[in-house]
Design brief:
It contains six helices and four strands, in the order H-H-E-H-E-H-E-E-H-H. The protein is α+β, with helices and mostly antiparallel strands. Strands 2-1-3-4 form a four-stranded mixed sheet, with no helix packed on it. Helix 1 packs antiparallel against helix 4 and helix 2 crosses helix 4. The longest helix is centred in the first third of the chain and has 14 residues. GO terms for molecular function: protein-disulfide reductase activity. InterPro entries: Glutaredoxin, Thioredoxin-like_sf. Belongs to the glutaredoxin family. Keywords: Disulfide bond, Electron transport, Redox-active center, Transport.
Amino acid sequence: MGFFDDLKQKIVASSAGEYDVPMVSSKLDEIVKSSSSGVVMMTFQSCPYCVKAREVLDSNSIPYTDIVLEDLDNGALKGPLRAELGKRFKQTSVPAIFLKEEFIGGANNGGKGGLIPLLDSGEFQKML
């Protein structure tokens, strides 16, 4: 992990403040396992990368569960969930996309390479 990634994780963790780590960790587990289609995205409503990921999934007729962080507990879990994402997956940004409970990254990078690169290479379809 690079210096800026580490710094970003520290900033997100600091801005999350005090929170119930076991409860938020359990909530993250619940979210990751929440889709019968196998694809789960944690997003912000108007984030341009989240909008792009939704468009790409929709245009490829791939069903997914979209967990909009601002909608969870009136937004109170947004910071803590991003902090836990950083701890577990070394990524605090959204979208955070999971395929069959495996973190694949965001729209363009991270995890296994990200949604769009995996679709372009055909790997996403194989994993699905």
